[in-house]
Amino acid sequence: MGLCCCLPGADINDYPPSSPDQETRRRQQAEAAERRIKEHESKGVKDPEALRRKQRQKEAADKAIESQPSKGDGGLKWQVG
Question: Would you state the torsion angle of the CA atoms of residues 5, 8, 14, 17, taken in this order, to the nearest 10 degrees?
């Protein structure tokens, strides 16, 4: 038993390359990275658009609370006694 790597009389250039060229590999890696980023962003979120709407509503509510004039003492009183 020996190693069989190619057919007798066949040239090594007759076989397809074992790995894609560098440009194809870079493109595939970039696509995979973008896919992983999208999956990570949406992990655990059923509806990402609903989440964004809720975040915007919360930010608007926080801004509205901050823009209201305060009553000076904040409405809390200390009683010692």
Answer: 10
- Rounded to an integer, the average pLDDT of 14-20 is 68
What is residue 12's DSSP assignment? G
How far is it, in rounded angstroms, from Cα 23 to Cα 71?
65
Domain ranges of the chain: 22-65
Over pLDDT 90: what percentage of the chain?
35
pLDDT at 77: 77
The helix/strand/coil state of 17 is coil
Find, among 41, 43, 23, 19, the residue nearest to 31 by Cα. Answer: 23
What's the CA gap between 63 and 73, in Å, rounded? 20
